[in-house]
Amino acid sequence: MGKAAPNATIDAELDYIAGSDTLYVCSGEPADFSGIAAVTLASTSLTGGDFTKADATGGGRKVTVSAIADVSVTSSGTATHIAVANASDSTLRYVTTCTSQAIASGNLVNVPSWSITVGDPT
């Protein structure tokens, strides 16, 4: 028996992530929404226009988060993770690693474009 997931099924997962309204630059991996505050170095608002869905190379689907320039750093530390969450319903939606970088409070940080891929079932 084969396995299949229509694009609409995969897109539903990506739509949940794209429902995030805030991006956080973090010094560690938050375990849940309430843990974000302890590791946040910088944050910025997101809108639906910051997410673009498309077919993924090799199969499946992806959502790309747009690059965001000049995010104000509110706490000094070493950025190691990026998290997206929906603050209005207190849900952590996705966490990934980033290139480790020391950032200082009062400065600005740029977050490059990045993608989340959900592959077709195998």
Outline the structure in words.
There is one protein chain. This protein has 122 residues and is mostly beta strands. The protein has one domain. The protein has helices spanning 7-18, 36-39; strands at residues 22-26, 40-45, 51-55, 61-65, 68-72, 77-86, 91-103, 108-111, 114-118. The strands form three sheets. It has a four-stranded antiparallel beta sheet with strand order 2-1-6-7. The protein has a three-stranded antiparallel beta sheet with strand order 3-4-9, with helices on one face. Strands 5-8 form a two-stranded antiparallel ribbon. A hairpin with a 5-residue loop joins strand 3 and strand 4 (61-65). It is elongated. The chain starts with 6 loop residues before the first helix and ends with a strand. The model has no long low-confidence stretch (mean pLDDT 96).
Short account of what is shown:
The chain is mainly β and 122 residues long. The protein has helices spanning 7-18, 36-39, and strands at 22-26, 40-45, 51-55, 61-65, 68-72, 77-86, 91-103, 108-111, 114-118.
Keywords for this entry:
mainly beta; four-stranded antiparallel sheet; three-stranded antiparallel sheet
Shape: elongated
Order of helices and strands: HEHEEEEEEEE
Mean pLDDT: 96
Helical fraction equals: 10-25%
The helix/strand class is mainly beta
Termini gap: 11 Å
Q: Sheet bearing the most strands, described? A: 4 strands, antiparallel
Radius of gyration: 15 Å
The structural domain count equals 1
Across the major sheet, the strand order is 2-1-6-7
- Which stretches are low in confidence, meaning pLDDT under 50 for 5 or more residues running? none
Number of helices: 2
Q: What is the β-strand count?
A: 9
Provide the β-strand percentage band.
over 45%
